[in-house]
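Progress note, project year one: complex with flavin-adenine dinucleotide.
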Amino acid sequence: MTNTGAVLIIGGGHNGLACAAYLARAGRPVTVIEAAERVGGMAATREFVTGYRASCAHLLYLLDESVAGDLSLASHGLRLAATELQTVALDPGGEHLLMAPDGLEGGGLGDRDRAAWPEYQRRMSKFAAYLGTLRSQAPPRITNRREDLLALGALAWRLRRMGRDDMREFLRIAGINIHDLLNEYFDSSLLKGALGFDAVLGAFAGPRSNNTVFTALHRRSGAGNGYSVVEGGMGAVTDALAAAATAAGATIRTGVRVQRIESDGLTVSGVELDDGERLAASTIVSNADPKTTMLKLLGARHLEAETARRFHRLRTSGCTAKLHLALDGLPEISGLAAEHLDQRLLIAPGPGYLDRAFNPCKYGEFSRQPAMEIILPSVVDPSLAPSGRHVLSAVVQYAPYRLEGGWEAGKPAFLEAILDTLEGYAPGIRPLIVGSELLTPPDIENLFGATGGHWHHAELSLDQFLMLRPAPRAAQYRMPVDGLYLCSAGCHPGGGVMGSAGRNAARAVLGGAKK
Ligand SMILES: Cc1cc2nc3c(=O)[nH]c(=O)nc-3n(C[C@H](O)[C@H](O)[C@H](O)COP(=O)(O)OP(=O)(O)OC[C@H]3O[C@@H](n4cnc5c(N)ncnc54)[C@H](O)[C@@H]3O)c2cc1C
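Model obtained:
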């Protein structure tokens, strides 16, 4: 066996890289083993058609500011091509709605909508900020140890500090569905569709599903510049993290897959790679999703039956697809001024539309009229496409992980349904398309190794959050087998490019977090 040093990290997604950087800065010898030819995982920028580049995750809005600051990501090359994007809720009739935190424009809104907006924003921002504060630490354990009781008390105290009315409101709405909440505030279908869509992006949920106020809050829990487009695609974030890690002394190997974690059931001793090479390590941090790590790489036989069952039961079926179009020129969207093509465009014109888009997914069918979050990143970052050409990047819902009849047969029809939907808003877009890539959840699973191709590695919902994520007694990054840690989106605080799980896992390794 080759001895690679003290800490071995499986996976060079953004969390694995953040973890590597923190550990290397603390003086630990670190080796990252990444299966793909390049680092970045779901955030990597890839060439999808010759000369055209895009990243699966496409907007930056959750990055933990302290991670960006600690690791000096700006000095390692991270640049934003655009910040504070406005959201434009596209209306099929061309009466689009421009949404900014401080006001709403267009969309044929009534007085009640305009009057309710500031209070909705105030409350949701305050509640989201509370969730944001939970990110920076490992969830407390449910024990009678003093430090755990204090951590639990601090959590409750921060909630109480919201003030009595806001705290009550938070407790009332955190578990309910976004559809009911939006009806309490607004009349406009367009507005409710857009806000509802934000609550269900990346989730196996429709606007009437439980927990969707919680998922809406999670999505808003980042501080900083709102939605940003990163120069060079989101892969520039992961490249900056990789640069920070290597500058601190970490070694990154790409194009090698970890096949197996070696363990006697009590402690880990190393990994076996797909080429048969074995690397010794007494500390292993996995950036792979929890199911892959615990049930495939480690193996359920090394876990107590109840622990294995908990990992097995994790809900991990993704329902989000990603479309990348290589375009010959800029599309026109009916009723939208060209200068708004650099904003965040939503197709979710009403809660009913969203519900109808979600329903087929429950039965293994794709949406015939999907909901979409669209950006044209090449408008603000021309490096992503050949001169004068453009990239359209769209997150598309809904696409079930298991499609009736299989994706091989179903994918062309799904692509047609998406393009038909796009044509409804951007007539004439089809002739501009010179190439495309549609990633279904199984494609995302194959490309990035995440079970179910899930945005969060495991559904983000109240039953899979905080000290329940990914499983009770395994929610503080340290796993029940000595020396094994998790650092991915499947851990607290969930998915999105934030780096918090990577940073928190590094702290657990350095602090020798207790079981
Ligand atoms: C369609 C879609 C759109 C999204 N859009 C956004 C967005 O706009 N903004 C946003 O913030 N978030 C977005 N997300 C979510 C975000 O991309 C993920 O939550 C985040 O990238 C997860 O990061 P991670 O480092 O935890 O895991 P990953 O990015 O999944 O990285 C895990 C890494 O581990 C490697 N790996 C796995 N198994 C092995 C093995 N056995 N050996 C070696 N290496 C291995 C993988 O190759 C991969 O590189 C989106 C997700 C999807 C699916």
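The pocket of flavin-adenine dinucleotide is lined by residues 10-16, 33-36, 41-43, 56-59, 62, 202, 257-258, 287-288, 292, 297, 320, 322, 395, 444, 448-450, 455-456, 488-489, 495-497 (CB under 6 Å).
The mean pLDDT is 95.
No further modelling is planned for this target in the current period.
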